[in-house]
Amino acid sequence: MPTYIVLLGPPGVGKGTxxxxxxxxxxxxxxxxxDLFRENIKNETELGKLAQSFMNKGELVPDDVTxxxxxxxxxxxxxxxxxxxxxxxxxxxQADSLASLLAEFDGKVNYVPxxxxxxxxxxxxxxxxxxxxxxxxxxxxxxxxxQRTGVCDFDGSQLYQREDDRAETVTRRIQVYFAQxxxxxxxxxxxxxxxxxxxxxxxxxxxxxxxxxxxx
Length: 216
Ligand code: AMP
Prior knowledge:
Strand content: 15-25%
Order of helices and strands: EHEHHHEHEHEEEHHEH
CATH topology: Rossmann fold
Number of strands: 8
Shape: globular
Helix content: 40-55%
Number of domains: 1
Bound molecules: adenosine monophosphate
């Protein structure tokens, strides 16, 4: 049976950073809806143009578009053994579609680690965040600085500040999270899948807590 992990938590809590580390340890592919949209923006596809108009405002991309993108990604051969989902699902409609989609692959959501942090921490994390152009590796100017300013430690590519990490958009993204994504916490808790993890801890400690959850 394939293994599917849904990494839940507000923007800026460290889902992307942790997903990259956990993907290495578990061997599961890291499927990030935000990264897939950014790849489409970089390649100037129709999907990218559509997504960008929502992303720059801090709004969610419509469910039908997002779901079909994820369906395409999870259907690829590297996801045969499962996947580590980061940033998807973000609405109850997406969560229901995911359940149906995984049933087609004879799978289901197996683990939902829910990483939390205070709103002050999230804002500080997002506004100090630098992202690598090539593969989306993330750094923080204070808490996780790259060895050389402006250069990715992993692939040497240039670091940039995401347009939606600017102060005005950050506030909106957090509001959208509470309105549209937070209901998934109760949804997965009722299904007995949720494990809460304190995302205010240092990166290594959050990874260690995640691995404990995933070994259960
Ligand atoms: P992220 O990289 O996960 O912070 O996502 C960046 C932006 O991409 C979000 O603010 C949304 O505009 C869009 N996005 C990413 N994932 C989803 C999703 N599951 N549903 C709708 N929009 C999404």
